[in-house]
Write a structure and sequence with these properties.
42% of the residues lie in helices and 14% in strands. It is α/β, with parallel strands linked by helices.
């Protein structure tokens, strides 16, 4: 049986190369999923080689394929007739992700935790961040779909960050999820401090297995995406999660 590492390399790298070759040969648009994990633990999230240093095999597999794409669309004359656009997704959340199991978004897990126990769990402080204060660029899947459709119509190629350009804390995400649930119950919103004080937000030890392999901060640089002509605004965590919770609670 293949290890997880071999499986990721086979699917995210080798199989992706096969798809790329076919799409270029047949002049079929290829819009593929890269990942913000290619940036690793750095603090600059711009689509340039100097800022890319993945921390795990998943990020490395995405990083390697991005390099192949850069070479092919930069040096292959045939590629000029074929669209190849890679999107470095940051933390995507939203409807129809339940099939991902434990890899589903934090918002999905928070909703289920709150429904089951009336509380949500966050990591304690680590790497200079306070309890629940690790920050990510959380992007709503509805916005992700809009960007994909825009690029499919524009036929623009390249590798682009796809986030909101705005980092928010896991505390904010947890509060947004709980308050969206409370709104459906007819209850008023509460602050992070109030939710922590009531034990609704609970902190658990930071896992040893994630130390040195965890992105405590991500925030997409949207310069290239905006430069490609995409101008729409992105939902905040509060806006996107409120919409998502309504969908989950149907």
């Amino acid at each position: 049986m293949e290890t997880d590492g071999h499986y990721m390399m086979a699917n995210n790298f080798r199989y992706s190369q096969t798809l790329l070759d076919f799409c270029l040969e047949q002049e079929i648009p290829l819009l593929y999923a890269s990942s913000a994990s290619v940036y690793g633990g750095g603090g600059v999230f711009r689509e340039e080689r100097e800022f890319e240093a993945p921390l795990n095999v998943y990020g490395y597999s995405k990083f390697l394929f991005d390099q192949v794409v850069r070479r092919r669309i930069g040096a292959n004359a045939d590629a000029a007739d074929s669209q190849v656009a890679g999107f470095r997704y940051f933390n995507v959340y939203g409807p129809r992700e339940q099939h991902k199991g434990r890899m589903a978004s934090v918002a999905f897990h928070h909703f289920n935790q709150y429904q089951a126990s009336g509380k949500v769990k966050l990591f304690e402080g680590y790497g200079g961040y306070g309890n629940g204060e690790q920050r990510r660029d959380f992007v709503y899947v509805g916005d992700v779909a809009k960007v994909n459709m825009d690029f499919l119509e524009s036929r623009i190629s390249g590798i682009y960050n796809l986030g909101t350009g705005r980092a928010q804390s896991f505390n904010e995400l947890a509060a947004a999820t709980v308050n969206a649930c409370r709104a459906l119950e007819g209850k008023p919103a509460q602050s992070v401090a109030e939710l922590v004080g009531q034990g609704i937000i609970e902190y658990i030890p930071f896992p040893d297995a994630l130390k040195g392999k965890y992105q405590s901060f991500t925030e997409a640089d949207l310069g290239q995406l905006r430069g490609a002509g995409y101008t729409d605004a992105f939902a905040t965590v509060e806006e996107g999660v409120a919409d998502y919770v309504k969908w989950l609670a149907r």
